[in-house]
Specification:
about 300 residues; alpha/beta; TIM Barrel; eight-stranded parallel beta barrel; 12 helices; about 15% strand
Length: about 300
């Protein structure tokens, strides 16, 4: 039986750096950084009067220079749906994904899908969804459900706590005590449909210890990585969301055990006195694949 995640390739998304699309200086430095993915932001990071300039700058930049990791473009919301000028810019440069902001219901994903289909977007162009409003959190399971179809393009949910705090009045406290259950709600919705989930930004990029603590919290919650606002945050995210060596050794042992001829048709095996199911094999294979991607990334740097 196919699992929800089976049609989603394994990606490395420990560190997802957001860069204003109109910041030429920041764009020029991207290939010198070690993040796994880049969000080129046309939305919140760009002033209203600079939107057109940002689109032109981004198209010129990505036409000449692509990052080593995934390239994602965050577009703007329009009066009805999403800004078609941004979507046209996306088609001009064909990034890996579009990040849809303030997604509150499945209809927003379907609207983007319809536009992409009508404009002959390549199948490789994926969708990410920002969950950053109360309605978005409440509807996260229905939004993520769209990603169960391989034709729906939806790969990833990204939590946006700044907007969520603003709309709810929840205090920005260390450890996120009044936000953690919302984070877990989005994480659970993503996992139920086989999607990746990216933790929210940490605003005080100079506070390294607090950043590291929040990265560890996000990792322990089950997130795949963290959205970042400054290059100084990359190292902490890569470390926290990396692969634990003991976990990798266990994954390889599970893969080796299920690879033995006598275990080829077994759903459950005894591994060192512990019962291991075939679902653990699937998890082990994904973890090992991520470890290989990390090694390849290291070799390039």
């Amino acid at each position: 039986m196919m699992r929800p995640a089976d049609h989603h390739p394994v990606r490395l998304r420990r560190s997802v750096l957001s860069v204003p699309a109109d910041n030429r200086r920041a764009l020029a430095k991207i290939n010198d950084l070690a993040m796994d993915a880049v969000i080129f932001d046309l939305e919140d990071a760009v002033a209203l009067e600079r939107k057109a300039e940002a689109r032109d700058t981004l198209v010129r930049h990505l036409s000449a220079c692509r990052p080593d990791g995934e390239a994602i473009i965050r577009i703007n919301v329009a009066e009805r749906g999403f800004d078609e000028r941004d979507l046209a810019a996306v088609l001009a440069v064909k990034p890996d994904a579009i990040l849809l902001p303030k997604v509150e219901e499945p209809a927003a994903i379907r609207s983007a899908l319809d536009w992409l289909s009508k404009n002959d977007a390549p199948d490789s162009l994926r969708l990410w969804a920002m969950i950053e409003t109360p309605r978005g959190v409440i509807n996260a399971p229905a939004i993520a459900e769209i990603g169960r179809s391989s034709a729906a393009r939806l790969d990833c949910l990204v939590v946006g706590l700044n907007d969520l705090r603003k709309e709810t009045g929840v205090a920005d406290l260390p450890g996120r005590p009044y936000l953690s259950h919302w984070l877990m709600q989005v994480l659970l919705a993503a996992r139920a449909s086989g999607l990746d989930a990216i933790d929210a930004v940490f605003n005080d990029f100079r506070n390294v210890k607090a950043l590291e603590a929040e990265c560890r919290q996000g990792r322990d919650m089950g997130f795949d990585g963290k959205m970042l606002i400054h290059p100084a945050q990359i190292e902490a995210a890569n470390h926290s969301f990396g692969i634990d060596e003991s976990a990798l050794e266990e994954a390889r042992a599970i893969m080796q055990a299920f690879g033995l001829p006598e275990n080829a048709d077994k759903g459950v095996i005894n591994l060192g006195g512990r019962m291991v199911e075939r679902l653990h094999l699937h998890e082990a294979q994904r973890l090992a694949a991520k470890a290989d991607l990390i090694e390849k990334r290291k070799a390039k740097s």
